Amino acid sequence: MSPAELEGPSGPFLEAVGAGALTAAVMLSVALWLDRTDIASPPLSIILLFVPIVAALVTAMAAALIGLPLTWLLARGGRETAWAYPAAGLVAGAAVTIAFFGMGVGGAGRPAAEWLLIASFGAAPGFVCGALWWLRYRRHVRAGRGT
After folding, report:
1. d(Cα 121, Cα 38) in Å, to the nearest integer?
2. Other CB atoms closer than 10 Å to residue 11's CB: what's the count?
C-alpha cells in the first residue's frame, strides 16, 4: 500500500474541495464587488460572509456527486492521468455553473461571450479541485499500485 492509501482520502479530498471553494469565493466576491451598479447591491461584509459558504457547499456537493464517481470510473478503467482530473473538474465545474445560471430568467438570450464568462466561475474552481485531488492523493495511489 502507498502512504496515500494508508493516510486515506478524506484529508486530500477536503484540501481539494477547500482550494476549489476558495477559488470560487474569491472569483465571485470580486465579481460581485465590481458589479455594484445600483443601491440594492449587497454590502461587502455580506458578500464576504455568504459567498464562501455557498462556494464551499456547491464545491463539496459537486466533488462528491461528480468527482468521486468519476474517480471510481477512471481507476476501474485504468485511465487515471495527470490531466484527467483537472480536465474533468474544468468541464464539470463549467457545466454545473451553466446549468445553475441557465435556470434563471433570460438565460436563453445571453450572448456566447457571457456564457463563457459564467462558465469560468465554475471551470476554474473545478480545475483547481481536480488538480489537487490528483496531486495530493490519486497519483500516489496509482504509483503505489505500479500502474
Report:
1. 22
2. 12
